[in-house]
Amino acid sequence: MCGIAAVILADPRGMACPDLYEGLGLLQHRGQDAAGIVTCGPKGRLFQCKGNGMVRDVFDDNQLLRLYGSLGVGHVRYPTAGSSSMSEAQPFYVNSPYGITFAHNGNLTNARELRVFLDKIAHRHINTDSDSELLLNILANNLQKTGKFRVNEEDIFTAIKDLYEQCRGAYACVAMVAGFGIIGFRDPHGIRPLVLGRRSTSEGYDYMFASESAALEALGFTDCEDVKPGEAVIITREKVTRRQLVTGKTMAPCIFEFVYFARQDSIIDGISVYKARLAMGEALARQVVKTFGDSMDIDVVIPVPDTSRVAALQCSHTLNILYREGFNRNRYVGRTFIMPGQQTRRKNVRRKLNAMALEFHGKNVLLVDDSIVRGTTSKEIIQMARDAGAKKVYFASCSPAIRYPNVYGIDMPSRKELVAHGRNDDEIAQEIGADKVIYQKQDDLVESVRHYNPSIEKFDTAVFDSCYVTGDVDDAYMDYIEGERNDESMTALADDNDCVGLHNNFVK
Ligand SMILES: O=P(O)(O)OC[C@H]1O[C@H](OP(=O)(O)OP(=O)(O)O)[C@H](O)[C@@H]1O
Ligand SMILES: NC(=O)CC[C@H](N)C(=O)O
Ligand SMILES: [Mg+2]
């Protein structure tokens, strides 16, 4: 689940870099592994800085001052394909045709075929295992076909329309054509989010694409609108051109954006993440009442910081049971779920959360979290709650049991790693050490989100029900990605991580 951004300023003498840098910082929760910015300055020259690490680690003032130009693209990465090698940090760049830079959020499901096509038919050299590099090269190859000295909007729309036919999976993308402008487009199912905003200046409007509206809002951009599934938007200094290139596909935004990934102050596809999380907490409370019936003996509701706080608060309010912050969160440790490697994740749950005995001692506690994926967090904190003196520990999840892999940009590719795969609720409770586990029902989760935009008929809920909206995910594909991306193979790949690849001038 990466974060992407692109900016074009009305003033051609302006610097796009500060907005991109700040924007990436505001999207940091979507990817902590790598960050990058490419800007386009005078004479169409590109300036790049990218590398592994958080935004604050990758860029320093000196580098930022040298990212010249009034337009640019940026990326924060949470790897879901390839490795976490520095050479796969985005944006990616191809010089031909026209000098294109590109950043992607999502995951392709037909990457293998595209790789063969680019090699055998298009004769394009691919230098990494990243699926985003494939997407960029498909776009470049399609643009190349125009054979023109310079492209125009029509050519770009045609190239993206063809790309929609060639590429399957999830992809929200931003691109920049040197000396021309910026582009945003979203896959035909709209699995990953992308919004566009504008900011009024004395020279005209600045425009910015970002994964989430919260980033735009904080930078003073207004009139935020979602890029629609199957739509492409091209912005030059002269005009904004939008085109719906694919119609008739089911819109299916990823429900996990609302459950976990997105910031609660974002609005995605017309739905406030905050409101959706409140509704999830309320529905979860009803599920808790149903589960316990007359034997309800919960003394206190405690959230698992950070993401579940809003839902837990509303759950406690609906249950009319005290809400208490029993875990202290170390603000200097990032999100643990998106960290690479099970050992790192486990260690960081302990570094991040600490149970306060005075809220646990002698009490029956209901811990509320947004989700249970590998069970890393729940296992550790249930033990912490017990060590802090809790009598009984119940665990409630705002989403249903996650039993199937995500293949659209969340790194949970292996069924074996999912604590709920092949287990019923009692077995899960036993595995994570809880006295009872209470899961949200899928219909209630969907309704909590959909209620705020009933025009969306479907959400991507494949991790709960294995219905993959792109229609190309079968057992054979799952076996393949399981082999490629399980924790063991990823650890082996990580040993290769010092590769800085070709297009990387990451120098401090
Ligand atoms: O079952 P698991 O594999 O542990 O995954 C689920 C947990 O991971 C996430 O928290 P994370 O620490 O990433 O982020 P947060 O601080 O935003 O809650 C999520 O909110 C759950 O707490
Ligand atoms: N989480 C994402 O969106 C990742 C984008 C891309 N698949 C990568 O691994 O770099
Ligand atoms: Mg969490």
UniProtKB/TrEMBL annotation:
Q: What is this protein called?
A: Amidophosphoribosyltransferase
Q: How is the cofactor bound?
A: Binds 1 Mg(2+) ion per subunit.
Any one GO MF term held by the record is: amidophosphoribosyltransferase activity
Which residues are responsible for catalysis? 2
- Give the family this protein belongs to, as stated in its UniProt record: In the C-terminal section; belongs to the purine/pyrimidine phosphoribosyltransferase family.
**Alphabetical UniProt keywords:** Glutamine amidotransferase, Glycosyltransferase, Magnesium, Metal-binding, Purine biosynthesis, Transferase
PANTHER family per the record?
AMIDOPHOSPHORIBOSYLTRANSFERASE
